[in-house]
Amino acid sequence: MTESVYKIIELVGSSPVSWEEATKNAVNSAGLSLRDLRIAEVMTLDMKIDNNQPAVFRARVKLSFKLLSD
Amino acid sequence: MTESVYKIIELVGSSPVSWEEATKNAVNSAGLSLRDLRIAEVMTLDMKIDNNQPAVFRARVKLSFKLLSD
Amino acid sequence: MTESVYKIIELVGSSPVSWEEATKNAVNSAGLSLRDLRIAEVMTLDMKIDNNQPAVFRARVKLSFKLLSD
Amino acid sequence: MTESVYKIIELVGSSPVSWEEATKNAVNSAGLSLRDLRIAEVMTLDMKIDNNQPAVFRARVKLSFKLLSD
Amino acid sequence: MTESVYKIIELVGSSPVSWEEATKNAVNSAGLSLRDLRIAEVMTLDMKIDNNQPAVFRARVKLSFKLLSD
Amino acid sequence: MTESVYKIIELVGSSPVSWEEATKNAVNSAGLSLRDLRIAEVMTLDMKIDNNQPAVFRARVKLSFKLLSD
Amino acid sequence: MTESVYKIIELVGSSPVSWEEATKNAVNSAGLSLRDLRIAEVMTLDMKIDNNQPAVFRARVKLSFKLLSD
Amino acid sequence: MTESVYKIIELVGSSPVSWEEATKNAVNSAGLSLRDLRIAEVMTLDMKIDNNQPAVFRARVKLSFKLLSD
Amino acid sequence: MTESVYKIIELVGSSPVSWEEATKNAVNSAGLSLRDLRIAEVMTLDMKIDNNQPAVFRARVKLSFKLLSD
Amino acid sequence: MTESVYKIIELVGSSPVSWEEATKNAVNSAGLSLRDLRIAEVMTLDMKIDNNQPAVFRARVKLSFKLLSD
Amino acid sequence: MTESVYKIIELVGSSPVSWEEATKNAVNSAGLSLRDLRIAEVMTLDMKIDNNQPAVFRARVKLSFKLLSD
Amino acid sequence: MTESVYKIIELVGSSPVSWEEATKNAVNSAGLSLRDLRIAEVMTLDMKIDNNQPAVFRARVKLSFKLLSD
Question: 3-state class of F6 per DSSP?
């Protein structure tokens, strides 16, 4: 593993339930096209409000995956 | 919407259950007196501990709402 | 309380369920050997991914406890 | 001026033209109800995109004004 | 205390003597109209210079106070 | 919109005229291959200098666009 | 001194008088059990308020001390 | 160019027109005494307000120039 | 060069030898598929430890390359 | 004052008494060779410890002064 | 591994040779008393200068190790 | 040493070999005209790439030196 290279992409996931679900949604969406996903680091969390009511939890995450391994 | 002005206030909400509930409590409390709430951005999260036991989740959020619209 | 001194340590807790549980696990583990725990401040949150599936929530926290009191 | 107190509020101004105009709009909107405005510090700048075309410049600013003077 | 909501405002206090006095002045000025003040967190400190001589200490603080309690 | 996923990429746009034009150039270049662009957040601004004269304005932006929607 | 190792711990000191005294209290408390203290770096300063009156100055510091020397 | 050394100085430029002009003014002022100016990085932007009206745009920049070349 | 657009991607390179080699590995891996690479900015550096022994140096870098030129 | 240019330098002042005195010492030392000093912004504060006893307060400040005025 | 807890300590290592050696020295010193060391994250790097000559490389690192595992 | 004043300047050094050499080059260049250099703190590290090959290591450092001593 000593010379592997990872790439990091930034995604925003959403969920009406929780920031954990929002993060899972972002990861699952990335998992449709990328293999070897490793870690999703939370950058920011927010909550959208509709009609003055809490509505959607959003998590902006940096997601790393293996690009090359030795 | 091209010349609207938003104001941002900072609140700390609390909940014995989760940071999502803590954020909702802050937003609902603001919703009692403000209209057109838009987004609650999480600044910091912490957990108060009582008698050496996890007790209260707190979320410090910046909350934006429309002040003027064109 | 005017001259008390607090110490702050940094821990990473994990949970398959949520960041709230991950934080509680870190606090409970610290509570085995430390008294007068006060606040756990979240530094970073991330999610480990195994076999391309969301797996473990981790919370890095700074935990304060009373060292000396007047 | 040695014991005056200033308050700082946070606003987001918008303009289809520039970030300078966005900032001026935020300041002018505040000037409708506040006197002794002093400085608008830029926190963040962004640009909203509509129909894949650049549309609105937004400036988030912290605006200070005199609350009390000696 | 588990569902109380706090608001945070930002003030700049001044004093010819020290940053402690500058902070106290900001807090005392807020205390004229707000109850249940809790903590003043220092954001930045600076010193104004007049006629090339140190003149006024200024403290920019975030001040929290209770908005709602359960 | 409650479970949509956004991706964020980072670009640097340039313009001899202004940072607004530099940002528009980055967005327009991205718009050649990406749909549903949403917001360009300014990360940093600088100005290149040639022959000791101000020459080119550059804006480093994070650009978000919709990846998946529910 | 070329291969010495230092450890850094984080403390919060308090004082009714000043942030200098708060920092000294943290250092003196650490000095009861640690030798070769070197520098206390201020992380954050705040002021606790009781009964709407300024009450206690607190300084959160990182304190370094020699662990090993060559 | 592999062993050249650059120096970086910090300036604040002003303009009644725009932050681009404010930055150019800072660079042009530095160009009176320094050669081989390279890049002006924006640190902060603000706007001074006089008589409650937007008045002067200011840009705080870090300006690099070549000190030594190989 | 006044209207060129650059893209920035984030990579983590590894090396058992040094952070310089880790960065080179990330750049060389990117160079397999991208032309006109320009600068690799270090975001974070760390060292993985295996069996309680220093093992692998890792560098997280932002890598810019030309997307469009005028 | 609309097109004046300011320069900013960084100094560390020391005092056995307080951070206010440390800052004044830095400013007074700069005032020996520079005119039109304006503001000293605190970057960091620390305290040196000698023989395990609090010894010297140090303030790292950014000091601005007028370079050119219109 | 889903409920393990890690602790993070902060060390400064030194070396006349390189920041890699400085980091290894900090890790090796910690390894004398701690097991299950995992990652050393670089916080800051600096170089001490003696007699106006580069002398010692120092790395301030955060070092994590396993406290509890499930 | 209790009332000495230090000045801090910012330099970028380069080297085809390593960031340690880049930092030494910056320090040695400063040492041609300044005495009593003390510490070079690393602000940022990057690597320039020529013809898609790693080429030059650059270190941006803040360098402190004694201005006045008591």
Answer: strand
Measure CA C32 to chain center. Answer: 13
Residues 1-40, chain G: which have Cβ within 8 Å of C?
Answer: 9-16, 25-26, 29
**Contact yes or no for K64/C43 (Cβ under 8 A):** no
- Residue C68's Cβ-side half-sphere holds a number of Cα atoms within 13 Å equal to 20
Residue D36: HSE in the Cβ half-sphere, 13 Å Cα cutoff: 10
Query: Tens of pLDDT along H18-49?
Result: 999 999 999 999 999 999 999 999 999 999 99
SS3 state of residue L20: helix
E contact test, residue of B9, B11, B47, B63 with most E CBs within 10 A: B11
The domains of chain I are located at: 5-68
SS (H, E, C) G46-63: EEEEECCEEEEEEEEEEE
Tokens matching residue F31: 């718009």
For the entire predicted model, the pTM comes to 0.96
- J/G touch flag: 3 or more CB pairs below 8 Å: yes
Chain I partners within 8 Å of F59 (Cβ): none
d(CA E46, CA C11): 34
From residue H65, how far is each of F60, H27, H38, I2 by CA, in Å?
A: 21, 11, 5, 20
Cα dihedral sign, J9-J14-J19-J24: negative
| K31 neighbourhood in chain I, CB within 8 Å | 52-53
Asked if G25 and C5 come within 8 Å (Cβ–Cβ), the reply is: yes
Residues whose CB falls within 8 Å of the CB of residue K12, separated by 6 or more in sequence, listed in order: G5, G6, G7, G8, G64, K26, K58, K59, K60, K61
Output b/e per residue, D17-48; b: 16+ Cβ within 10 A: ebbbbbbbbbbbbbbeebeebebbbbeebbbb
- Give this complex's ipTM: 0.96
The CATH code for residues A5-68 is 3.30.1660.10
Q: What angle do CA A58, A18, E3 make, to 5 degrees?
A: 110
Q: Work out how many CB contacts closer than 8 A connect B with E.
A: 36
Place of tokens 């983590």: I12
Q: Which residues contact C34 (CB under 8 A, 6 or more apart)?
A: C65
**Residue F42 CB neighbour total at 10 angstroms:** 22
For D3-50, what is each residue's pLDDT tens digit? 799 999 999 999 999 999 999 999 999 999 999 999 999 999 999 999
